[in-house]
Amino acid sequence: MKPDLKSMTRKELEKLKADVEKALDRVAAKEMKAALAAAEKAAAAHGFSLAEITGDAPAEKKTRKSKTGPKKPSAPRFKNPENPDQTWTGKGRQPEWYKAAIAAGNTPEQMEIK
After folding, report:
1. Alpha carbons 34 and 64: distance in angstroms, whole number
2. Alpha-carbon distance 51 to 62, whole Å?
3. Can you give the residue ranges of the DNA-binding protein H-NS-like C-terminal domain (predicted)?
4. What number of other Cβ atoms are within 10 A of residue 101's Cβ?
5. Which of 33, 100, 101, 112 is the most buried (most CB within 10 A)?
6. In the chain, pLDDT over 70 holds for what percent of residues?
7. What ranges in the chain are assigned the alpha helix state H?
């Protein structure tokens, strides 16, 4: 039985529209559920879960091996003129003895280890 749309009021048409939208949503949800089940079944047939294929869950993580060995400590480039046991590689923050020596008039070339 087909409704006669021309004889319906606006209110009746809006209710019919809402009913049709609800029915479409139910059918779409049912079809989506069936499609999901089919996709999971197909993934399982190949030995995967659907989450692994779609990237939602991480697959087994492969660890990378480092191509280089451990870093070697840098050789010292500067030494304290007053205490030769204190050295600095020239990297990172300047030590207090280096700052004090520069302030006292020494040049970096004078403190450089040759």
Report:
1. 39
2. 18
3. 68-113
4. 21
5. 101
6. 93
7. 10-45, 50-54, 96-103, 108-111
